[in-house]
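Write out the bound-state structure for farnesyl diphosphate.
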Amino acid sequence: MAIDPRIDTLRLPQHVAVIMDGNGRWAKQRGKLRTFGHTNGVKAVRETVETAAEIGIPFLTLYAFSTENWNRPKMEVSALMTLLVRTIHKETKTLMDNNIRLNAIGDLDSLPKSCHRELNEAMERTSGNTRMTLTLALSYSAKWELVQMVRSIVKDARAGALNERDVNEALIAQRLCTAGMPDVELLIRTSGEHRVSNFLLWQIAYAEFHFTEKLWPDFGAADLEQAIIDFQGRERRFGKISEQVREVV
Ligand code: FPP
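---
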């Protein structure tokens, strides 16, 4: 694939996160069950992952299943889990061929055993890959993650291994599921919704948001490229004023 020449490969967002939304509506528009939308969503996942790797994005994180998604009808939850297991099993070879490491964040113990096992195997097999880290957020919510982080700090403090002054931004970042990953620079949400939906709240502190009307199964290479072009056209001030930012560049 030829990368869109408008993309400056020297100024890529180091971490792109995606809220994949609209599978249900996509299926409904076609008079089909919601699960048909999820099945077609897998194609968009594949294309997004391959395109991100080709462009040279080092970290891509996809919101595949939220803590709140457990409240969906039983049949849909079960179909999503089956789809996950199948997709991970089927795509591990593609991940190996493309030198992509698979990672997962979230309350992974709450996933069905088969899903957890498939995930662990794929993560183990791809652990030496270096081109891009693909993280799936599964049974994930940012509030859940923040609670885990606070618990781990309190535990160490009670054991005398930490004191109040040790708690700073770096320590907190180390105790989140995304430890060792850069903060999100570009957050994409499909389907015309303008919400964060409990996703990576700490990590998106300075992210640029890109919203598209496209429903997730229709999202493809050109849409990811457009999001990156949009990102590169923004002035990121990080609290400074425009003149200060331009002096640095
Ligand atoms: C949002 O659409 C999508 C999901 C909750 C699931 C995402 C799952 C996939 C794309 C398939 C499998 C993924 C991987 C990583 C293998 P929605 O159901 O909320 O759509 P709606 O808002 O139109 O109802």
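---
Residues 15-142+184-248 form a domain with the Undecaprenyl pyrophosphate synthetase fold (CATH 3.40.1180.10).
Strands lie at 15-19, 59-66, 100-105, 132-140, 186-189, 208-211.
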